[in-house]
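Retro notes, item 3 of 5
We never archived the inputs for the glutathione complex last cycle. Fixing that now. Sequence and ligand:
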Amino acid sequence: MAQKLTLISHKLCPYVQRAVIALNEKGVPFERVDIDLANKPDWFLKISPLGKVPVLVVTGDDGKEIALFESNVICEYIEETQAGAKLHPQDALQRAQHRAWMEFGSTILSELWGLETTGDPAVFESKRQAVAAKFARVEEALGKGPFFAGEHFSLVDAVFAPVFRYFDVFDELTDLSVFADTPKVRAWREELAKRPSVRTAVGADYPQLLHAFLVRHDAHMLKLAA
Ligand SMILES: N[C@@H](CCC(=O)N[C@@H](CS)C(=O)NCC(=O)O)C(=O)O
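Structure as it came back at the time:
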């Protein structure tokens, strides 16, 4: 069935980026519609039960639209329905492990959000350590590289690339030092940053936009960094 894919997006959202990266890796054409999350349109609230991006709207030949939410589910759908490079292992057990690490990538992001908003140095430090401990676990899971599972780029890479990109900007604002003892994670991060599917998943203005967003929202964090 011929389909049209429309990704409802926000320019800064790392969950959106993982879906964009998966679509880019597959070479699938899609339309991206950015919305203002501070002023969510009614049509968006109708199709997004949690009011969150990304949402992938799949339009069938018959014009019927199905809206999918949750970024990892969207990535799985892209993998299952689109031709192109395989982004999941063939083996069921390995695939399950990859799914678990995709979830792990979401958990790291939610811990980062907490880091941004705290004004208490002790809370900041304990959260910073929690994030560093998570990356230490990622370090243990990594092999020779260059990607999470070796030679082939997978959905785990698509999930972590935007996390690392977020750190690029975050690191300029505050001293997180969460990669100090994780050489494999650092090498992985550098490899992903070079990947065309990753680089083109955001606009050229992404660092400036994210920087401005963090500065606007995270006065406490900046104070701690000073
Ligand atoms: N679990 C969701 C998380 C998505 C998410 O948190 N998106 C944020 C933007 S990065 C959002 O839409 N926030 C708007 C809101 O919560 O009101 C997923 O993986 O898709």
